[in-house]
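Session log. Operator J.P. requested a structure for one protein chain; no other inputs attached. Running the standard single-chain path with C-alpha cell output.
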Amino acid sequence: MGTQPTPHNVRPSHIVNHGWYPSDPRRLAHTVDEFIARAEVPPINGDIVGILAPHAGIKYSGAVAGHAFKLLQGLDVEVVALVGPSHYRFAADIVTTGHDAYETPLGQVPVDQGILYLLQQRVQIQTVFHDQEHSLEMELPFLQRVLGDFTLVPLALIDHSVQMAQQLGHALVHALEGKKALLVASSDLSHFYPQDVANMLDQVVLDAIEAYEPASVIEAEEQGKGFACGRGAIAAVMIAAQELGADRAQVINYATSGDVTHTYRSVVGYSAAVFYRAES
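Structure written below.
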C-alpha cells in the first residue's frame, strides 16, 4: 500500500498465523468484502470524521466491523489515526511502532512518521519494535479494502484515564490539521460475562457513545457499570472527532461472540459506531 518502505523495517503480522484472519490474500480480501457487502447500514447525513470498530478474530467480530467500514466506502482519506488499547505492558502511557510500515497479506501500510513526530511534541509516546498487538492490526485489512492507499498513525493506549484521552485527543487535532484524516477507535466491549449481563453492561457504554459523552465511556468501567477494553481509545477519538467538527455519534451495529458461536455462557461484546458532522 502506498510508498513501499525498506523491507528490513516492515512490521510483519504477528497474528496472521494464529487464526485471527486468513493468511491467503485472496481469501482474506473475499472475507472482508463479504462482511462489508452483507452489512446493512443507515444513511449518514453528514461528513464522517471517525468510526468505532471491534478487533476480535475476524470470524467473531468481522460482521460487526463490516458495518463500520462500509460507511467509509468512497471516502477520500490520506491518513488514518488508529487508536486502540495495548494488551501488553510498556513503560509509557502510549506506544507506537518503530517500523516504517505494517504488513498484512493484502500488502504494506506505511506509517506516517511526520504526524507521529508532531504528536510526540505534545504527548509522550514510546516507540516499540515487533510488538504483538492485535487491536491495531485487526483493523488494517478492512481499511485496505475500503480506502486503498493511506498512511497510518498507530497508537496503542495503556493509560485509559480521562486526562490521557483528552491530552491525546487534543494532540491528534493539532497533528492532523490540514489533512484528509480519518479517526478509528478500536475496541471490544465487555468480556466473558453471560449474554444477558453483557448486553446490559455494553448498553451503558453504547448509551454514553450516542450521548457523545467521552468521559462517561471511561467512567462506566470505573463505576463497574459497563466495560470496553479500548475505553480510552474510544474517548480520545470522540474528543478529537468533536474538535474536528463531529457533533453526532451513532451506534450502527452491536452483537456478541455468542451470536456467532451460539454459546452464551461467556461472551465478548462488539459494536460499530460512527462520529460525524451532521448536515445543517
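Operator note: The chain has one domain: 7-278.
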